[in-house]
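User: Hey, my collaborator sent me this sequence without any context and asked if I could get a structure. I don't really work with proteins. Can you help?
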Amino acid sequence: MLFGLITRLLAAHKVPVAAIVLLQLVQTLGNLLLPTVNAVIIDDGIVPGDTQVILRLGAVMAAIAAVQAAAAVAAGYLGAVVAMRLGRQLRQEVFAKIQSLSSQEVAGFGAQSLVTRTTNDTLQIQSFTVLVFTMLAAAPVMGAGGIVLALQQDVALSSVVIVIVPVLMAIMYLIVRRLVPLYRDGQELLDRTGEVLREQIIGANIIRAFVRNDYEIHRFSEANAKLTRNNLQSALLVAGMLPLIMIVVNLSSVAVIWFGGHRVQAGEMKLGALTAFIAYILQILLAIMMAMYVLMTGPRAAVCAERLRAVLDTSPSVADRRPSDVPANADRPVFDGGDLSFRDVTFSYPGAEAPVLEAVSFTARPGTITAVVGSTGSGKSTLINLLPRFLAATSGHITLAGRDIRSVPLDVLRSNIALAPQRSHLFTGTIADNLRVAKPNAADTELWAVLETAQAAGFVRELPLQLQAHLGQGGSTLSGGQRQRLCIARALLRRAPLYLFDDSFSALDFDTEARLRHGLETSLRHAVVIIVAERISTVAGAGKILVLDDGRLVAEGTHDELLETSSTYREIAESQLALGDMP
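Assistant: No problem. I've predicted the 3D structure and written it out in structure-token form, which is a compact way to encode the shape of the chain:
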């Protein structure tokens, strides 16, 4: 899986990869030639005292070394560049895939896990690619060439190679076999530690308010300790590899010198040949060490590749239809002035015992605000999420202006919907930047107009920089009500046939909410408007109110009609009146 992923990504970089391989071959051939030339200098130059041979072959060695060094530098540079581009490409692919996943699939992976996979896992594969370019490409040629040239120098002494290679291979196999499960557990523990840390940072005020500091410190310490133990075990295995290899290398060097010395003394081998043989033995061992080092890091990269493939191979439950299934005119907005209709719409999560929504049918018309109420968990937000297809209906049909929303490309569908989400999410940047998410080319006058409608212009004008005021991450510098009003203004900036407000008024006082609802009725007469709310006061003036209970649509009508006909609606209204939640 790892090499399959890398090979696919490298398909777009064939020329530089070929150049890297060629340069690595030049560098390796230079390494292999130098001991042979050195042996000739010793036997034909130093021993007989021939200065001309020494100078001539010394110049040859210098030229080979210069070419070898230049090839090594060029190969290293190209390898780093290609690896960085591969990492960038992989991050872009994972990010694009995450953006295509539905809310259901994102929740299945977990937000923190997806962050770790996009950053840390990608970095591991990127680092492994650098090692492949710098070491693994040269190791086989160096090892095979070293064996051939060592045999050329002395066949009998080459028996040392026959002994040490299997020993090194056995060491490598045992260590790598143990590393794979450790690295797999390590990446999951890294996810868990990051998740705990993220929760504690986001919920810092809650932790302080309930005096849970000691508990959270202990919880993080446990996750951190498990990750540390895992990393320590893998690090000890990797650290133990070098001493084991060095023992084998040193023993083999001693054996070569011992047996080679006796052969030189007996006149069965020349001194230069022994010197070259020692160099080739070291090159063979170096090649094996390089391959082992790459294979030691390979298990972690392989685990990361598995995790990334799990994301990349996930088929989104919400996706555009095949081109053959899409009408020819599906690329243009086709919803102006049409009704929104649900027909026996059901939604269930895979493996769930009961559906979240079951056989829901209703029609919402332009110019009439349609409100959705119900107890917590009744399926209100799920109903909203089906419209921009953040979730896909299990069965039934949803149509807008007579068109089944599944027949329209997702980008086109969503560009015709304006959404104020349940969670008031703002991005790091200025107020103007956040509003222009809905309409990038909007003029300042348009921004002030929607801020007026959303009852947000007052507090924005009080800010020193007004529209250019910088917001912290998530709008942390604003109150909950201010964030909600900015999100509503952002939705209003987009001129769309369908507006969705998912519990977007919960943090507003009654007076602000009343003025805002009046502004919406005036400015959105052309559109279908769906408002999800917990408070009866928010929906009392709606033209149609839908009452959900346990995923079923149990009643619909106006506020007065439902007070007379729906016990569920009447219970909600009476409970809020008793608690003072109605004006």
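In plain terms: Residues 323-332, 579-583 have pLDDT under 50 and may be disordered. You can pass these tokens on to your collaborator as they are.
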